[in-house]
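Troubleshooting: if your tokenizer reports a length mismatch, compare your output against this known-good record of 393 residues.
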Amino acid sequence: MCPTDGDLFFEEQSDTSRRKIEVYGKYLRPLAYKLLSGRYNRLWIVDAYAGAGAYDPDAEGKRAEGSPLAAANIARQYNVDAASRGKQIGLINVEANSARFAKLEQTLMGFAPAVTNIRGRFQDQLDRILEMVGADPALFFIDPFGMDGAALPVIDRILERRSKTVTELLINFSHRGFQRMAGNLDASAKSPAAKAAARTKVESLNAILDTTFWQGAWRNLDLSPEQKLDQVADLYAERLRARGIEEVHPIHMRDSWDSPTAYRMFFATRSPHGVYLMSDIVAAYERGLFQQRFEGTFELQWETERRTRAMDELRDEVHAFGLASQGARPIDVFLHFAPIHFGEWTQTDYMNCLRELVRRGGIQRNGSSGIEQREMLTFSPIAQGDLFGAGAG
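Known-good structure output:
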């Protein structure tokens, strides 16, 4: 969504927000083709905090896409292509602020009838939204300013439908929002009114996280602020998994490769296929940050050598998996390793490992080119000489 701070709409898009919307948008296309290739006819994308839909024009008159406009452009293209098959992406955008809602309506004016815009708080409109979505698969993009959107009681209401159909979540866990609320835990307020306000905020955070355990991390003097946030975010992920979501993975959104995480986007799904699709996108996002940071620097060679060693370790892991499984398809490799190495390696990296294993004799195949995703591969032990590169030619 377009960033918001209370009633303030940020006119300029930050690099982190741009990358977040790129990750989000890149996932929508493969998600639609994956889910709508079978028995489902409609996929819903619910943008719970839609903002104005797009950013205000910059000095050159260009408008950066917010998440609603990005999704609308993808949905329009998909719906045209898939109309003959009776498949469709439907969009639901929710915005509480009247001024931003008016901009949202104007921004998405040309995208009817696939788009439904709802004015109001997401929590207050959720019953209506769930009725609209019904038993169709849905992705809920929950990207508020602050912590309210991440509230687990709200997530529980969404997950009541999970036994019926596919439900995926992309949730902004706001570091700034958490710190603002958690700072009231031991606040030295003097007036009764200030003390009551601080206590209310702490109780609200307890309810949002559905636990008081975060308080231990926050009060731990041995932890840095970043370590405290890491522990609380891990706790939040555990609370999501406890609700029957098998796969919960953080995406660390930040300005650069080695800058601190600005916020985490938690991707939550029960679909193994969703995990490897999103992992591939996040790995490409991380690769972009890496290249931006090290390209043209003296450190590039060291970092490249480190990555090469990590790739060798990954190849050995893939080989061990194939041997233990008595054969595997590339798609099996993706599904197995994406949760383990979420956001680290792309599907191209895994395919390169398989091709290298063919060349080294670890996969019995006549040549390393043209491997298909669903081709069954026969793995075999590698001769000792090849382990040290003798068979790498």
